[in-house]
Amino acid sequence: MVTRTCQSATEIADALISMLGKTVVLGLPIGIGKAVHVADALFERAASDPSISLTIFTGLTLSPPQGKIGLESSFIGPLVDRLYADWPTPAYVGAIAAKRLPANIKVREFYLRPGAYLGNDLAQQNYASINYSHVVDELTELGVNAIAQLVASNDEAPGKYSLSSNPEVTLDLLPRLEARRGLGHAVAMVGQVNENLPYMFGDAELDADRFDFILDSNDCQFPLFGLPNRRVTQADYATGMHVASLIPDGGTLQLGIGSLSDAVAHCLCLRHDSPDIFNAVLEQLPGGTRSKERLRLPVETAPFEKGLYSSTEMLSDAVLALFQRGLIKRPADEHDETLIHGGFFIGSNAFYETLRQMPPERRRLINMTHISFVNTLFGDEAGKRRQRRQARFVNETMMATLLGEAISDTLDDGRVVSGVGGQFDFVSMAHSLEAAHSILMLRASRIKEGNSRSNIRWSCGHATVPRHHRDIFVTEYGIAATRGKTDKQVIDAMLQITDSAFQPALVAEAKHARKLAADYRIPDAASDNSMRALQNVFDHATLRTCFPEYPLGTDLTTAEQQLVPALEWLQSGTATAASKLRVLFGAIFTSEAASNRAALDRLGLHQAAGIRDRLQRRLVNYALTRTGK
Q1: What is the topology classification, in CATH, of domain 4-220?
Q2: Shortest CA distance to 464 belongs to which of 422, 492, 433, 431?
Q3: What are the tens digits of pLDDT across the range 517-556?
C-alpha cells in the first residue's frame, strides 16, 4: 500500500470521502490521541453537505475547563490561558455543547469527560455503555471504515510511525480493517504527526505502509493536553496508606489517575524509602494495624526488593513515578523484559516531558500495546497468568453500597458521569487470576450543597460492579475485604470503613432489612471514623513534610496552590444561608495577612474598588487564613 503524505487536513478529508463514499464511520482514540484536524475537516465537510453521513465513535474528548462567573472564573480563566491556549478542541464538542449537532452527524462516546455532560441531552442520549475491551467489537458492528489518530515520528526509526499514547484500540481494530480491505471494502488508516508526542517503541510501532494517509504539517502542530495533578488531601493519603499495605513485593500493579492514585504511588515510595515512618503512620490510622480487623489481612510494609511489574490500562503520572523511582522493576517474565504494559497514556505536562527526555533504552521497557492484552486474559492466557502474579488492580469508584456494589459512572437517575471504561474488565480479571484482587478506592463522604453525605449507601439506582463481583473496598478509614463473605459480614466490613456520622442510620437500614441482628453495634475500633482522627495523625509536626499536597509536582503557581483549598472551603462554607452568615461575620473581622496578598492579586482583587470586590477580597482572605498552613 502506498502511503500518501499530506500537508492539509482538508486534502485528507476530501480524499477520504472520495475513497469511502458519503458514509464515513470514524474511529478516534480516547484522550489525547485524536487526529483533531482530520476530524474537524471531516466535520466541516459533513456540516456543509447533508448528503454526507458522518458517525464519530470515541471516548474522553478533552476540552479546557470553563469556570462559572465570579471567583471560579477568575481562578480558571488565567489557568486555561496558560495551559490550553493552543489546544484544538474538536469542533463537535462545541456543537454538542450548543445542542446544534447537524442531523447527518452522530457522535457516540463510550467514556465522557467526568461530570461535563450531566446537563446535556445529546451527550446523555448518545453515550454507549461498553467495557473498554469490547470497544473494538462495537466499532466493527457500527461498520467503522476509518481510523484517525495522532502518531509520533523518529529520525532514528525511518519508515515507521508510533501510535504512542493510543495503540490500545487501534492495534486490535487495524487487522479487522485490513481484512475488510482484502474483501474489497474501502477502509482507511490516517495518522497525524505530532512532534510533541513521545515516540514509544514495541507494539506501538507500525510500518509506514500500514497508513493510507499521513498528515505532517507545521500548521497542525499543537501541545498535548496536560492534566494538572490534583491536590492530595489527608483523607487521600490515609486511603493511599491502606492500599499501599496491600501491594506485595514481586506482584503486579494496575493503577489509574487522580489524587487517590497519586497518594497510593507516594505511599508506596514512602514504604520503600522510609518503612519505619510508613509502619508508624499505618498503625495510628483508623482501620490501621492497631485494628484486629486489619491484622486478619496480609500487611505489606517492607521495601521492594523484587519490585513490581505493571500491566495497566492507563500509564499515568502515578505509574510513571513508580517506574522512575525504581519500584517498578520486575520484568514481565523470563521471556519478556518489559516492566510496564500499558494501553494508553495521559498525564501532566511534566509526564509528557519525562517520556520525551527518557533514554530510548529505558523507554523500550514500557510497551504500549493492545487493550485486549492489558484488559483481558484472552490470547496468550498462560503467558498472562505467568506475568500477572499477585495482581492488584487498583481503581476508584464514586460510591458503594453496604452489600458491596460499586457505583462508578452513573447517578441514581441514570445520567452518566463518565463511563465504565476498563473497571469491570479488571474486576472480572481479579476474580479469574490466582491470588489477585480488585481494590476499589472511594472517599467515605462528600460535601454537597454545604452538607456532608456518605458515599457508602444502603442502596443505589445503578451499579457499575454488581455485588457478586465484590472484593476489596478502601476508604480513608480502612479496608473492607468482602469477597466470599456473607451479607452480614460484608455489611459489617463496609460499616467499619464508613464515616461515623453516617453509621447509625446505615445500621438501622440494615437491621430493618433483616441483614443485621437487632443487637449489632459498631466495633469500638471503628467508632471514631472522622476527619479529626485523621488530623491527629497527619498534623503531627514530624510528618508534614512526608505528605506533601502535590507529591508528583504541579503546574500550579504557589499562589494557585494556596487558592485551591481556600476556594473549595469557601464554596462549601457558604452553601447555606446560615453558613454564609458565619463566614461573612468571620471575614469582616479577619485582618489581611501579607502571605495572602499574592493569592488575592492572582484573582484580580488587588484593586478592590467597589463594594462587591472589597467583600470578595475579604471572603477570600478569610478562606486563605482558615486553610493556610
Answers
A1: Glutaconate Coenzyme A-transferase (3.40.1080)
A2: 422
A3: 999 999 999 999 999 999 999 998 888 899 999 999 999 9
